[in-house]
Amino acid sequence: MQALAETTTVAPFDGWDIERRVLLRTALYVALALAVYGVSFSALAVSSGFSFAQTCAMSLLMFNGASQFAFVGVLGAGGSIVVAVLSALLIGARNATYGVRLGPLLGVRGPRMLLAALFTIDESTALAVAHDRPGDRGRAGRFGFWSAGIAVYLLWNLAAMGGALAAARIGDPRSLGLDTAVAAGLAGLVWPSLRDSTTRAVALTGAAIAVALTPVLPAGVPVILAGLLAVAVVMLVERSRTMRAPSLRQLRAAA
Amino acid sequence: MWPAIGTTALGLYLEKLAGFLLPPQALERDAPRRIAALLPIALLAAIVAAQVLASGRTVQLDARVPGFAVAVLLLIRRANFLVMVVSASATTALVRYLGWMA
């Protein structure tokens, strides 16, 4: 039985072999794309007055691109530390929902769970969930999670270090249009999730409220308020619609 | 600045870890899951808007706008991430260099 199991698992060109290579390649490609983003993050951080050590520490310990950008962006725009910390944590809150999904799939405990938690980001979760299926007891899902987590962690931090070193030579980052690079990079992160009308409504409402509140509130506060208000407004509108729908049907049935 | 970095890093890590420690039924209710999915989209869109249009506490149309317009155009055309970011920042840099928009 043991021998049979071995011959079947080491058979050349089996499906798992190909899938493993596809997963590794996807993880590497995602990590390379994010590395570009990591360079812009640390260039922005250094030009906003963070030291080389602080910039590297942020990437190593926070390991959440959008939160890092929010943190540095709020402080760079003259916002308070409390608002900066709060924006970063609000953006990171979604990671808690990822862990709920990943826990049973990865089946990790102790030190491995502590490491898996660090690697819990959009990309590793996406790869794990996309390849999770009951057929292989989660093997492909787990492999996807760890390859994306490790590849992104390594390249993200190398990129952050490189960007921080290069930023010291750039001088004024505005002359290279780096402020637009940050906006473009963040827009690129959100873009794939704008598939349905609800997410589009949430994004547009958030953007509009943030701009409307900019003249009246200190830096960073409009963004936090815009985020919370946009979600509340869109969810309320959705709820009132779903509540109205059956009554319309009832009206038609009655008529 | 170090205490703020430490607090944020610890908070972000605990958020990630919390998911692993919660029971799998934790997200069976619809509302918390919806909020967690929509909140980052709203916040990121707000940050992008502020990054493109805000300058301190004033709303300002400058060289960032044409750069970001290029980014949106390339996103619609499904361009490569790197190409999109570089084209957007290059547009802003060029407009600034030519002194067209302050």
**Biggest sheet of chain B, strands in spatial order?**
1-2
Question: What is the typical, i.e. mean, pLDDT of chain B?
Answer: 90
| Number of individual domains of chain A | 2
Specify the biggest β-sheet of chain A: none
Topology, please?
The complex is a heterodimer of chains A (about 260) and B (about 100).
Chain A: H1 2-9, H2 15-47, H3 52-62, H4 65-76, H5 81-92, H6 94-106, H7 110-118, H8 122-130, H9 139-170, H10 178-190, H11 197-213, H12 221-254
Helix pairs in contact in A: 2-3, 2-4, 2-9, 2-10, 3-9, 4-5, 6-8, 8-9, 11-12
Chain B: H1 2-21, H2 30-53, E1 54-55, E2 58-59, H3 64-76, H4 81-98
Antiparallel strand pairs in B: 1-2
Helix pairs in contact in B: 3-4
Write a concise keyword list for the protein shown above.
heterodimer, A: 255 residues, mainly alpha, 2 domains, 12 helices, 80% helix, disordered N terminus, B: 102 residues, two-stranded antiparallel sheet, 4 helices, 2 strands, elongated
Would you write up a description of this structure?
The complex is a heterodimer of chains A (255) and B (102). Chain A is mainly alpha-helical and 255 residues long. Chain A has two domains: 13-193, no CATH class; 194-255, no CATH class. Chain A has helices at 2-9, 15-47, 52-62, 65-76, 81-92, 94-106, 110-118, 122-130, 139-170, 178-190, 197-213, 221-254. The radius of gyration of chain A is 22 Å and the shape is globular. The termini of chain A are far apart. Chain B is mainly alpha-helical. Chain B has a two-stranded antiparallel ribbon. The radius of gyration of chain B is 19 Å and the shape is elongated. At the A-B interface, helix 2, helix 3, helix 4, helix 5 and helix 6 of A face helix 1, helix 2, strand 2, helix 3 and helix 4 of B.
